[in-house]
Amino acid sequence: LTTIIPQTSVTTRRLHDIGYSGWWQLLFVPLISAIFLVFVGTIILSFFLLTEGIGSSEIGLFAASFIWLTLSTGLLIIWIFWLTKPGNIGPNKYGTDPRQIYETTDHSSH
Predict the structure, then answer these.
(1) Alpha-carbon distance 85 to 38, whole Å?
(2) Is the pLDDT of residue 107 over 60?
(3) Which one of 21, 65, 99, 103 has the lowest number of neighbouring Cβ atoms within 10 Å?
(4) Quick count: other Cβ atoms within 10 Å of Cβ 30?
């Protein structure tokens, strides 16, 4: 719980560096988590049902579990790609590029 605010702010800054809104994390993080939890729940339910023998419902649960796993893995790969790709060069609509050195025009110290 103590890392939620710092993690959210760092992720927002990272998304801003690549030109995306920080609000994207409200879509990706809960969606990936929910899909993964459904995948784990489907696997656990499948194991309980396997004790009675393999029927069409068990095969369907395994297929659904594979689909959930594929979906969550795909979303996670997109999320990791976004968070690891290089930031935009130069300023964007979220601010200046922190990697660039900007010359100041203030010559009053001379």
Answers:
(1) 29
(2) no
(3) 103
(4) 10
61 C-beta neighbours (distance < 10 Å), count: 19
Measured distance CA(62)–CA(59) in Å, rounded: 5
Is 40 in contact with 32 (CB distance < 8 Å)?
no
pLDDT tens-digit readout, 58-104: 677 777 777 877 887 888 888 889 889 888 788 888 877 777 765 65
Six-digit token pair at 70?
Answer: 């594929």
How many angstroms separate the CA atoms of 71 and 55, rounded?
25
Give the amino acid at 2.
T
CB 38 within 8 A of CB 67: no
Q: What interhelical angle do 56-84 and 25-50 show, nearest 10?
A: 150
